[in-house]
Hints:
The protein is α/β, with parallel strands linked by helices. The chain contains ten helices and 13 strands. The longest helix has 25 residues, at 59-83. The radius of gyration is 23 Å and the shape is globular.
Amino acid sequence: MQLQQLAYFVxxxxxxxxxxxxERMRVAQPSLSKQIKTLxxxxxxxxxxxxxxxxxxTPAGEALLPLARRMLADAETARREVAELAxxxxxxxxLGATPSLCAGxxxxxxxxxxxxxxxxxxxxxxxGSRDLVRALAxxxxxxSLIILxxxxxxxxxxxxxxxxxHLVVAAPAHLAxxxxxxxxxxxxxxxxxxxxxxxxxxxxATLNACRQAGFEPRFAVEGGExxxxxxxxxxxxxxxxxxxxxxxxxxxxxGAPLLPGLRRTVALAHRKDVEPTRAAQAFRAVLLAFLDEAxxxxxxxxGVEALPQx
Length: 310
């Protein structure tokens, strides 16, 4: 089994077309087909069903696909790591982060890292914690900022708690004259909510809090990502439960703490079976130093607390 064969297999699996896969891999279609047949012979099972011109994965192909993606990602990581041995003049960090962090602290931390290591490429994938955990497991990310607790323990990940943030009820700033020092969860029963899309951690946190208070919330609009939700709130469509840090620099919104308080923990995660690359380790060091400095200078957004590292 060769990495090139696995790359051809993944291309066919993703395009569902041998010719299109050959074009993606910049190889002649007969050569790609030959390599796939050789791979099938080595594995002792067909990987694709080619009935009536439709290319679909067989059960063996379905089983191989996530493993092949992971092996290819690990091989790329190994190539990058060897290239970094001469120093961090070049390299790459593949970082995952939730939308609230991308809209908040992450930009400043990335700017610091880019200043210190200008030759290191930074790739950021924005998504919900569940999607980011899956991307880590597939080897598509080096590090990720995720929300704890995970949906079920994942023994394949190492997590390091770095931040704790309060959740607040965001409302349009023009309602500030009627603002109270806090909002009780039960009061959301009477207020339409702007709700995140399904699978979003904040959606689940809000729904769970409301259900524990004995009611199902009413949605004014649902399905948005972070920026869309904040804009909908600014437009007066409803209120939303969001991390306090995302309101920093948004004069069109105000936030009121929830009672009982809702908080969440942000962790830096990586795969347990793969040592982070030198570039990824350097980013971790820069991020933690940035948070420590912001804590000492009192510049962290309101409601955000950096957790001490041991």
